[in-house]
Amino acid sequence: MDSIVTGGCGYIGGHLTDSLAGSGDEVTIIDDMSTGNYRNPKSRLLKADLQISQVLDLPRGARMFHLAANPSVQDSMSNAAEHFDRDVKATHNALELARKNDAKMFVFASTSAVYGETGVIPTPETEQALPISNYALFKVLSESMVGYYSRTYGLRAVTLRLANVIGGRANHGVICDFIRKLGTNSTELEILGDGRQRKSYVYIDDVVRAFMAFGEFRPASGYDCFNIGSTDWVDVEQIAAAVEKGMGLAPRHVYPDKTSGRGWPGDVRTMLLDVRKAKEAGWEPRYGSEAALDMAVSDALAMPK
């Protein structure tokens, strides 16, 4: 089977490419190599920038997994135009490639951040999207385009709204930030926000299984949306404790700004997804947030410095 992975040299895309190639798929990666540099040796790489509309040598009738994006919520608040191009414009161009090459399935990587600060916990897919960051806003716009292409052009498509993905080859996020900070100063750990932000964390293997499963899914209406996450949550203090335990340290905690409870503008303080719909479709997480956290800390500490 032919599969196309945009952002296939990045974090989630690289792990997904490994799984697809390992299952026997012929995998084509579309990546501009601006941030990700992982390359599965069994894949074919097309170095291309999806911000630019172009003709690419792609297999017809393939599955397309669209993961290319800039994942930094914080950066999206100060570089909105760049993020719009990398997220919204790139999604449009990916959809055009899928349409013109008769893709059999389009799987879009979205985010739990689209819900914003909802009062409904756990949050189902039916809850209104009320984003509080440019990153989340651009994902909402992209989701709308995916649905439009499904309705208008008959493109079979699924959106996966991901909780915080951790583990494996991750090189960004709170775990990596804490490890870097403690590597510089082992006696003090700066924690953004008040440390009580609570969120669902999902291990990379569970996320890859979701993409693999929904790459074969047939939505009844041609398009559907699913939450992908664990069924519990941890707070930032628990993450700090897990990192400190893994490093054998006991630093004091400092909080530069505890007033808002947010780590940065656009940070969602509380997030737990309702994943019952995904379970009914045949996917469920194997790991809870605490287990995912412990494994992710071990993965991060084992990475070459």
Write the layout of secondary structure elements.
Blueprint: E1 2-6, H1 11-22, E2 26-31, E3 44-47, E4 63-66, H2 73-76, H3 80-100, E5 105-111, H4 134-153, E6 157-162, E7 164-166, H5 174-184, E8 188-190, E9 198-199, E10 201-203, H6 204-214, E11 223-228, E12 234-235, H7 236-247, E13 252-254, E14 270-271, H8 276-280, H9 289-302
Parallel strand pairs: 1-2, 1-4, 2-3, 4-5, 5-6, 6-11, 7-10, 8-13, 9-14
Antiparallel strand pairs: 9-12
Short description:
The protein is of the alpha/beta class. The protein has helices at 11-22, 73-76, 80-100, 134-153, 174-184, 204-214, 236-247, 276-280, 289-302; strands at residues 2-6, 26-31, 44-47, 63-66, 105-111, 157-162, 164-166, 188-190, 198-199, 201-203, 223-228, 234-235, 252-254, 270-271.
How does this model look, in words?
This protein has 305 residues and is of the alpha/beta class. The protein has two domains: 2-165 and 201-228, NAD(P)-binding Rossmann-like Domain (Rossmann fold); 167-199 and 231-271 and 284-302, UDP-galactose 4-epimerase, domain 1 (Alpha-Beta Complex). Helix content is 36%, strand content 18%. It has nine helices and 14 strands. The protein has helices spanning 11-22, 73-76, 80-100, 134-153, 174-184, 204-214, 236-247, 276-280, 289-302; strands at residues 2-6, 26-31, 44-47, 63-66, 105-111, 157-162, 164-166, 188-190, 198-199, 201-203, 223-228, 234-235, 252-254, 270-271. It has a seven-stranded parallel β-sheet with strand order 3-2-1-4-5-6-11, with helices on both faces. The chain has a three-stranded mixed β-sheet with strand order 12-9-14. The protein has a two-stranded parallel ribbon with strand order 7-10. Helix 7 crosses helix 9. The longest helix is centred in the first third of the chain and has 21 residues, at 80-100. The protein is globular and about 55 Å long. It starts with a strand and ends with a helix. The mean pLDDT is 95.
